[in-house]
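Minutes, project huddle
Topic: does the predicted pose make sense with 2'-O-acetyl adenosine-5-diphosphoribose bound?
PN asked that the exact inputs be recorded in the minutes so nobody has to dig through chat later. Recorded below.
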Amino acid sequence: MLDSSDFPPFLLKLLRAARHLVVFTGAGMSAESGVPTFRDAQTGLWAQYDPAELATPEAFRQHPKRVWDWYAWRRELVARARPNPGHRAVAEMERYVPQVTVVTQNVDGLHQDAGSSRVIELHGNLRRIVCSRCRREVPREQWAPAGPEGVPRCPHCGGLLRPDVVWFGESLPGDAWRAAQQAMRTADGVLVVGTSGLVYPAAGLPLEAKAQGAWTVEVNPTPSALSAEMDYVLRGPAGEVLPALVRAAWGDAAGS
Ligand code: OAD
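Predicted holo structure (C-alpha coordinates), as shared on screen:
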Protein backbone atom coordinates (compact mmCIF):
# COMPACT_ATOMS: atom_id res chain seq x y z
CA MET A 1 0.00 0.00 0.00
CA LEU A 2 1.23 3.47 -0.84
CA ASP A 3 1.82 5.93 2.01
CA SER A 4 2.79 9.56 2.37
CA SER A 5 6.48 8.83 1.77
CA ASP A 6 5.52 7.84 -1.79
CA PHE A 7 4.49 11.42 -2.55
CA PRO A 8 6.80 14.44 -2.60
CA PRO A 9 6.08 16.89 0.26
CA PHE A 10 5.72 19.82 -2.16
CA LEU A 11 2.86 18.04 -3.92
CA LEU A 12 1.03 17.36 -0.66
CA LYS A 13 1.50 21.01 0.26
CA LEU A 14 0.02 22.15 -3.05
CA LEU A 15 -3.00 19.91 -2.53
CA ARG A 16 -3.58 21.19 1.00
CA ALA A 17 -3.33 24.79 -0.19
CA ALA A 18 -5.67 24.36 -3.16
CA ARG A 19 -8.91 26.35 -3.06
CA HIS A 20 -10.17 25.03 -6.40
CA LEU A 21 -9.07 21.63 -7.58
CA VAL A 22 -10.03 20.25 -10.99
CA VAL A 23 -9.94 16.50 -11.56
CA PHE A 24 -9.82 15.81 -15.28
CA THR A 25 -10.62 12.18 -16.01
CA GLY A 26 -10.67 9.65 -18.82
CA ALA A 27 -11.52 5.99 -19.30
CA GLY A 28 -8.66 4.77 -17.06
CA MET A 29 -10.55 6.22 -14.09
CA SER A 30 -13.24 3.55 -14.54
CA ALA A 31 -10.96 0.69 -15.62
CA GLU A 32 -10.92 -0.73 -12.09
CA SER A 33 -14.73 -0.67 -12.11
CA GLY A 34 -14.62 -3.11 -15.01
CA VAL A 35 -15.43 -0.56 -17.73
CA PRO A 36 -12.99 -1.11 -20.61
CA THR A 37 -10.83 1.80 -21.80
CA PHE A 38 -10.59 2.71 -25.49
CA ARG A 39 -6.92 2.63 -26.40
CA ASP A 40 -5.16 0.20 -24.05
CA ALA A 41 -3.59 -2.52 -26.20
CA GLN A 42 -5.48 -5.85 -25.84
CA THR A 43 -8.22 -4.66 -23.48
CA GLY A 44 -9.18 -1.32 -25.07
CA LEU A 45 -12.46 -1.13 -27.01
CA TRP A 46 -10.76 0.39 -30.05
CA ALA A 47 -8.43 -2.65 -30.20
CA GLN A 48 -11.49 -4.80 -30.90
CA TYR A 49 -13.86 -2.42 -32.65
CA ASP A 50 -13.44 0.22 -35.33
CA PRO A 51 -14.61 3.58 -33.97
CA ALA A 52 -15.55 4.69 -37.51
CA GLU A 53 -18.15 1.90 -37.59
CA LEU A 54 -19.61 2.58 -34.15
CA ALA A 55 -18.97 6.08 -32.92
CA THR A 56 -19.77 8.43 -35.81
CA PRO A 57 -23.01 9.95 -37.13
CA GLU A 58 -22.30 8.29 -40.50
CA ALA A 59 -22.12 4.86 -38.86
CA PHE A 60 -25.47 5.48 -37.20
CA ARG A 61 -27.04 6.58 -40.49
CA GLN A 62 -25.72 3.56 -42.35
CA HIS A 63 -26.06 0.84 -39.69
CA PRO A 64 -28.31 2.19 -36.93
CA LYS A 65 -28.99 -1.19 -35.36
CA ARG A 66 -25.33 -2.12 -35.16
CA VAL A 67 -24.54 1.16 -33.38
CA TRP A 68 -27.63 0.95 -31.13
CA ASP A 69 -26.82 -2.63 -30.10
CA TRP A 70 -23.20 -1.81 -29.29
CA TYR A 71 -24.23 1.06 -27.04
CA ALA A 72 -26.95 -1.09 -25.48
CA TRP A 73 -24.23 -3.60 -24.58
CA ARG A 74 -22.07 -0.85 -23.07
CA ARG A 75 -25.08 0.58 -21.23
CA GLU A 76 -25.70 -2.78 -19.57
CA LEU A 77 -22.04 -3.13 -18.71
CA VAL A 78 -22.01 0.31 -17.12
CA ALA A 79 -25.30 -0.35 -15.29
CA ARG A 80 -23.56 -3.21 -13.46
CA ALA A 81 -20.40 -1.19 -12.73
CA ARG A 82 -19.81 0.42 -9.35
CA PRO A 83 -17.50 3.33 -8.48
CA ASN A 84 -14.03 2.16 -7.50
CA PRO A 85 -11.82 3.55 -4.70
CA GLY A 86 -10.45 6.13 -7.16
CA HIS A 87 -13.89 7.62 -7.82
CA ARG A 88 -14.58 7.59 -4.09
CA ALA A 89 -11.29 9.35 -3.32
CA VAL A 90 -12.19 12.11 -5.80
CA ALA A 91 -15.59 12.54 -4.13
CA GLU A 92 -13.89 12.61 -0.72
CA MET A 93 -11.65 15.51 -1.76
CA GLU A 94 -14.73 17.74 -1.44
CA ARG A 95 -14.38 17.39 2.32
CA TYR A 96 -10.96 19.03 2.30
CA VAL A 97 -10.87 21.38 -0.69
CA PRO A 98 -13.36 24.30 -0.86
CA GLN A 99 -14.15 23.67 -4.52
CA VAL A 100 -13.63 20.48 -6.49
CA THR A 101 -14.74 20.26 -10.13
CA VAL A 102 -14.65 16.98 -11.98
CA VAL A 103 -14.27 17.42 -15.73
CA THR A 104 -14.75 14.03 -17.31
CA GLN A 105 -14.57 12.50 -20.76
CA ASN A 106 -16.36 9.45 -19.37
CA VAL A 107 -19.98 8.71 -20.17
CA ASP A 108 -20.60 6.19 -17.37
CA GLY A 109 -21.89 8.42 -14.54
CA LEU A 110 -19.64 6.74 -11.97
CA HIS A 111 -18.29 10.00 -10.54
CA GLN A 112 -21.85 11.02 -9.66
CA ASP A 113 -22.54 7.55 -8.22
CA ALA A 114 -19.48 7.99 -5.99
CA GLY A 115 -20.87 11.26 -4.65
CA SER A 116 -18.99 13.96 -6.58
CA SER A 117 -21.31 16.96 -6.61
CA ARG A 118 -19.91 19.00 -9.51
CA VAL A 119 -19.30 16.85 -12.57
CA ILE A 120 -18.94 18.31 -16.06
CA GLU A 121 -19.51 15.65 -18.73
CA LEU A 122 -17.69 16.62 -21.90
CA HIS A 123 -18.75 13.59 -23.95
CA GLY A 124 -22.32 13.14 -22.70
CA ASN A 125 -23.78 10.24 -20.77
CA LEU A 126 -24.47 6.73 -21.96
CA ARG A 127 -27.44 6.32 -19.64
CA ARG A 128 -29.40 9.10 -21.33
CA ILE A 129 -31.27 8.31 -24.54
CA VAL A 130 -32.23 11.16 -26.86
CA CYS A 131 -33.96 11.47 -30.21
CA SER A 132 -31.51 11.80 -33.09
CA ARG A 133 -33.96 14.17 -34.82
CA CYS A 134 -35.65 16.40 -32.21
CA ARG A 135 -32.97 15.87 -29.53
CA ARG A 136 -35.49 15.43 -26.73
CA GLU A 137 -34.50 13.07 -23.93
CA VAL A 138 -36.73 9.97 -23.92
CA PRO A 139 -37.00 7.82 -20.79
CA ARG A 140 -37.12 4.07 -21.31
CA GLU A 141 -40.85 3.70 -20.63
CA GLN A 142 -41.64 6.13 -23.46
CA TRP A 143 -39.57 4.52 -26.21
CA ALA A 144 -41.77 3.83 -29.24
CA PRO A 145 -41.34 0.40 -30.87
CA ALA A 146 -38.55 -0.12 -33.37
CA GLY A 147 -39.31 0.14 -37.07
CA PRO A 148 -37.59 -1.85 -39.82
CA GLU A 149 -34.17 -0.43 -38.80
CA GLY A 150 -34.42 -2.27 -35.46
CA VAL A 151 -33.92 0.85 -33.31
CA PRO A 152 -36.57 2.23 -30.89
CA ARG A 153 -38.19 5.47 -32.00
CA CYS A 154 -39.03 8.83 -30.50
CA PRO A 155 -42.65 9.02 -29.23
CA HIS A 156 -42.76 12.72 -30.17
CA CYS A 157 -41.42 12.89 -33.72
CA GLY A 158 -40.72 9.31 -34.78
CA GLY A 159 -36.95 9.88 -35.11
CA LEU A 160 -34.52 7.11 -34.22
CA LEU A 161 -33.33 7.10 -30.62
CA ARG A 162 -29.62 7.25 -29.85
CA PRO A 163 -27.35 7.49 -26.81
CA ASP A 164 -26.64 11.03 -25.63
CA VAL A 165 -22.90 10.74 -26.21
CA VAL A 166 -20.56 12.70 -28.44
CA TRP A 167 -19.47 10.84 -31.53
CA PHE A 168 -16.37 11.56 -33.59
CA GLY A 169 -17.11 14.53 -35.83
CA GLU A 170 -19.73 15.98 -33.46
CA SER A 171 -19.33 19.08 -31.31
CA LEU A 172 -19.03 18.86 -27.57
CA PRO A 173 -22.10 20.11 -25.65
CA GLY A 174 -21.63 23.90 -25.50
CA ASP A 175 -22.63 24.32 -21.84
CA ALA A 176 -20.26 21.60 -20.67
CA TRP A 177 -17.42 22.95 -22.76
CA ARG A 178 -17.83 26.50 -21.47
CA ALA A 179 -18.13 25.31 -17.87
CA ALA A 180 -14.98 23.20 -18.27
CA GLN A 181 -13.01 26.12 -19.68
CA GLN A 182 -14.20 28.32 -16.85
CA ALA A 183 -13.12 25.67 -14.31
CA MET A 184 -9.68 25.49 -15.91
CA ARG A 185 -9.34 29.28 -15.70
CA THR A 186 -9.95 29.32 -11.96
CA ALA A 187 -8.21 26.09 -10.94
CA ASP A 188 -5.24 26.17 -8.59
CA GLY A 189 -4.31 22.67 -9.70
CA VAL A 190 -5.44 19.91 -12.04
CA LEU A 191 -5.19 16.17 -11.47
CA VAL A 192 -5.19 14.47 -14.87
CA VAL A 193 -6.37 10.91 -14.31
CA GLY A 194 -6.57 7.94 -16.67
CA THR A 195 -6.59 9.61 -20.05
CA SER A 196 -4.42 9.03 -23.10
CA GLY A 197 -4.71 12.77 -23.85
CA LEU A 198 -5.22 12.08 -27.53
CA VAL A 199 -8.77 13.26 -28.12
CA TYR A 200 -9.21 16.97 -28.72
CA PRO A 201 -10.60 19.41 -27.82
CA ALA A 202 -10.91 17.76 -24.36
CA ALA A 203 -7.21 16.94 -24.09
CA GLY A 204 -6.29 20.61 -24.47
CA LEU A 205 -8.07 21.60 -21.25
CA PRO A 206 -5.33 20.71 -18.73
CA LEU A 207 -2.87 22.66 -20.86
CA GLU A 208 -5.19 25.67 -20.79
CA ALA A 209 -5.21 25.45 -16.99
CA LYS A 210 -1.43 25.23 -16.95
CA ALA A 211 -1.15 28.28 -19.20
CA GLN A 212 -3.29 30.14 -16.66
CA GLY A 213 -0.90 29.23 -13.85
CA ALA A 214 -2.37 26.03 -12.40
CA TRP A 215 -0.09 23.17 -11.37
CA THR A 216 -0.73 19.83 -13.10
CA VAL A 217 -0.27 16.25 -11.92
CA GLU A 218 -0.89 13.10 -13.94
CA VAL A 219 -2.14 9.82 -12.43
CA ASN A 220 -1.72 7.01 -14.93
CA PRO A 221 0.11 3.66 -14.90
CA THR A 222 1.64 4.40 -18.32
CA PRO A 223 2.85 7.54 -20.07
CA SER A 224 0.29 9.54 -22.03
CA ALA A 225 0.43 12.26 -24.66
CA LEU A 226 0.13 14.77 -21.81
CA SER A 227 2.86 13.36 -19.54
CA ALA A 228 5.63 15.61 -20.82
CA GLU A 229 3.57 18.71 -20.07
CA MET A 230 2.75 17.75 -16.50
CA ASP A 231 4.50 19.30 -13.51
CA TYR A 232 4.49 15.93 -11.78
CA VAL A 233 3.59 12.37 -12.68
CA LEU A 234 2.28 9.61 -10.39
CA ARG A 235 2.64 6.25 -12.08
CA GLY A 236 0.01 3.79 -10.89
CA PRO A 237 -3.66 2.87 -11.14
CA ALA A 238 -6.18 5.51 -10.07
CA GLY A 239 -7.86 3.12 -7.60
CA GLU A 240 -4.61 2.86 -5.63
CA VAL A 241 -2.93 6.21 -6.14
CA LEU A 242 -5.90 8.51 -5.45
CA PRO A 243 -6.98 7.03 -2.07
CA ALA A 244 -3.34 7.03 -0.97
CA LEU A 245 -2.94 10.62 -2.11
CA VAL A 246 -6.00 11.70 -0.10
CA ARG A 247 -4.65 9.93 2.99
CA ALA A 248 -1.21 11.44 2.52
CA ALA A 249 -2.45 14.98 1.90
CA TRP A 250 -5.10 15.20 4.57
CA GLY A 251 -3.73 12.63 6.99
CA ASP A 252 -5.87 11.48 9.87
CA ALA A 253 -8.73 13.67 8.74
CA ALA A 254 -9.03 11.46 5.65
CA GLY A 255 -11.10 8.31 5.82
CA SER A 256 -12.64 9.24 9.19
P1 OAD B 1 -8.14 5.99 -23.57
O1 OAD B 1 -8.57 4.59 -23.70
O2 OAD B 1 -7.63 6.68 -24.79
O3 OAD B 1 -6.99 6.08 -22.46
C1 OAD B 1 -7.11 5.42 -21.24
C2 OAD B 1 -5.95 5.82 -20.36
O4 OAD B 1 -6.16 5.26 -19.08
C3 OAD B 1 -4.58 5.30 -20.85
O5 OAD B 1 -3.64 6.37 -20.81
C4 OAD B 1 -4.22 4.22 -19.82
O6 OAD B 1 -2.83 4.14 -19.56
C5 OAD B 1 -4.95 4.74 -18.59
N1 OAD B 1 -5.30 3.72 -17.60
C6 OAD B 1 -5.58 2.40 -17.78
N2 OAD B 1 -5.89 1.81 -16.61
C7 OAD B 1 -5.81 2.79 -15.65
C8 OAD B 1 -6.02 2.83 -14.24
N3 OAD B 1 -6.39 1.73 -13.55
N4 OAD B 1 -5.84 4.00 -13.61
C9 OAD B 1 -5.48 5.13 -14.28
N5 OAD B 1 -5.27 5.15 -15.61
C10 OAD B 1 -5.43 4.00 -16.29
O7 OAD B 1 -9.35 6.79 -22.89
P2 OAD B 1 -9.64 8.35 -22.90
O8 OAD B 1 -8.39 9.13 -22.78
O9 OAD B 1 -10.72 8.58 -21.92
O10 OAD B 1 -14.48 9.57 -26.71
O11 OAD B 1 -10.23 8.54 -24.36
C11 OAD B 1 -10.71 9.78 -24.73
C12 OAD B 1 -11.94 9.63 -25.57
O12 OAD B 1 -11.69 8.74 -26.67
C13 OAD B 1 -13.12 8.98 -24.88
O13 OAD B 1 -13.88 9.89 -24.13
C14 OAD B 1 -13.91 8.45 -26.03
C15 OAD B 1 -12.82 7.83 -26.83
O14 OAD B 1 -13.06 7.66 -28.17
C16 OAD B 1 -15.71 9.50 -27.18
O15 OAD B 1 -16.41 8.51 -27.09
C17 OAD B 1 -16.15 10.79 -27.82
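Observations noted during the meeting:
- Residues 1-34+83-123+168-256 form a domain with the Rossmann fold fold (CATH 3.40.50.1220).
- The first strand starts at residue 20 and ends at 25.
No decisions taken; revisit at the next huddle.
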